[in-house]
Description:
Jelly Rolls; three-stranded antiparallel sheet; 2 helices; 9 strands
Amino acid sequence: xxxxxxxxxxxxxxxxxxxxxxxxxxxxxxxxxxxxxxxxxxxxxxxxxxxxxxxxxxxxxxxxxxxxxxxxxxxxxxxxxxxxxxxxxxxxxxxxxxxxxxxxxxxxxxxxxxxxxxxxxxxxxxxxxxxxxxxxxxxxxxxxxxxxxx
Length: 150
């Protein structure tokens, strides 16, 4: 596999997914970057964001507009437009949008966040969200690491 050239001349291009209240535009996936990194643009409304969780890939946020609270471990930071946060792989973290809406870029790697987002696309059922998270290697405090038997 080798890296591919990716060019999106405008903001209308790139697959869009609905991920638990946010809109995620896929800009680069592992398959396109030779498994080096992935890039997403995220737009969300006030109070959106995932619960505390960890995953086997590093993640960084670059906030373009709006503001968010970023939780890493037990430390919360307010991050506004132009701000940046990096979360190492395996760290419990979360974000919550604190402005009416926010737009930010998420850079991940190495990992498969794009598959997680695809599995979560348009899913609102809690059990399905948990299954997708566990399938993609996430740890969520308070949620068993294996789905309960049916």
